[in-house]
């Protein structure tokens, strides 16, 4: 149409579409380089896998107005300090098991997944395990036989039998302990961690 | 001319492939709803199929059937329009046919393995052969590779056909969008132990598909569909398409940041993700204005009433489901309470249905019309067209009902679990057990059944509408000229 104003013309909007898309894509790529470097295992926000040798607990940071994980002294998982490679292997077994057993289609991890079962982000720190001293074994027993060890809190929902072996269960516990050390900007909101027996 | 039955002689070679994709898409739509009902029932009856067909399996099939039927719907839609839009024959019709069968057999194998093998040991072999265990893209790695190969063949067929024939604004956007859509899938095809890195790239696939490239793809289909049903002018729909692309990618690419609030990524994503994702509804408003304005401009005189009704349903469904429901919990100040609750389920149901199911159904009505011999599908259909009207009503009401029910449960969950309970497992379960949460689950089930009835009616209508019709279709361009 001859009377189409310039700002409504097809040609102008084609150029806008191209330039806006290109600029946004470049900004995203730039931010991705920065973000991926920030979340590499071993960084401040995402600790290395050998953090499973340490005590992990939660404190409120008034400056950030959110809770954040704090890495404490030695507290080796299952009583055995692991080398960085051994720790990574154990967490890897756990992560593979979490994927292979399709955990994410009942639970959420970092808040992503399904909503039939509770979030696993801070499962390691959850008060449901009673006391820090017994939780490792309780978690392994639960994962290996969730039917017999079911606690449904009045909902009737039980985790299914997934044929998780003892090694896999230990891997999953290692993965959950490592995941609880990730700085998630205060998610989940106002999380109340397990009673800290000797917080230091 | 035999107008009483589907007659492939009415179709060009691209359209002959398209109707196969549409047929499988509709079967998978039915499967999606069936497994959704099973999963929904398990919230109410937790022992139902326990240790036989558990929630995680039903839910996986529910969402995977959805992703795959929508991809089938998109591929079918593109094959449907490629010859008309390019003005030439599809370059590889036999290849397209072979591709369809390979992809469909692969999908069938994946579903059988999901249902009967379900899970495997914690090894990489399980991720390669059974299930990758990552929401929405659970397909095992062998299937990932097969999907990429099939999509590349599809892409070659479409791009080469346009190169042989003529290009248009719609086809240019479409082909570039398909490059991005196919390329992004690669971002999800690797294993890493680091859950933060895992989810960072996982969102590249999920978000940049459903909140960017899929939206632009349906923008192309909408532009073509409005020309087809209303006789809208190409210059108008193409200009709108460019506006939508600029606004969609302008907001949606960095809107990705609203998934990076809580996965370990830096705090700057709280600002970037919050700001850009808050802008994401704007292009969806533009699409509503576009569709409604064009329809009104043509006095709603159109060649295909069910298709236009579903296109309008798409415009509003996309705006409310993806736009409004997304906006409601996209700011980090709110999302901290709502992320990972039934809020997301509420948003997901209305968004996927409103943005994508609707427009694919519109395309299938356009396909059925031509398959029948370009017959009349405007006013005064036999039986007053009750089947398409009732299925439209039941499906939209059913999904909106589920959305509202899940939202009420989501409110309850975020209040009780997050705001009051301290986000522990005990808080989670106490929220799940509250009567108001459970009422939401019961209402969701009721509206789910309504949706299912709508699907069955839709399928019945799709195989019967136009049967025995002898009146020719309205030519929308003539209708437009006289409007």
What does this structure look like?
The complex is a heterodimer of chains A (200) and B (483). In chain A, 36% of the residues lie in helices and 10% in strands. Chain A has 200 residues and is of the alpha+beta class. In chain A, the strands form 2 sheets. In chain A, strands 1-2 form a two-stranded antiparallel sheet. Chain B has a domain at 15-166. Chain B is 75% helix and 0% strand. Chain B has helices at 13-44, 55-86, 93-116, 124-129, 141-164, 169-185, 195-230, 234-255, 268-279, 281-297, 305-328, 332-338, 342-371, 386-420, 425-432, 435-464, 476-482. The longest helix of chain B is centred in the middle third of the chain and has 36 residues, at 195-230. The model of chain B has no long low-confidence stretch (mean pLDDT 95). Chains A and B meet through helix 1, helix 2, strand 3, strand 4 and helix 4 of A and helix 1, helix 2, helix 4, helix 7 and helix 8 of B.
Summarize the biggest pleated sheet of chain A: 2 strands, antiparallel
Let me know the number of strands of chain B.
0
Largest interface: A-B, 88 and 87 residues
Would you tell me the overall average pLDDT of chain A? 94
- Binned strand content of chain B: under 5%
Number of alpha- plus pi-helical segments of chain A: 4
Overall mean pLDDT of chain B: 95
Helix/strand/pairing category of chain A: alpha+beta
Q: What fraction of the residues of chain A are assigned to beta strands by DSSP?
A: 5-15%
Count every helix of chain B, treating DSSP H or I runs of 4 or more residues as helices.
17
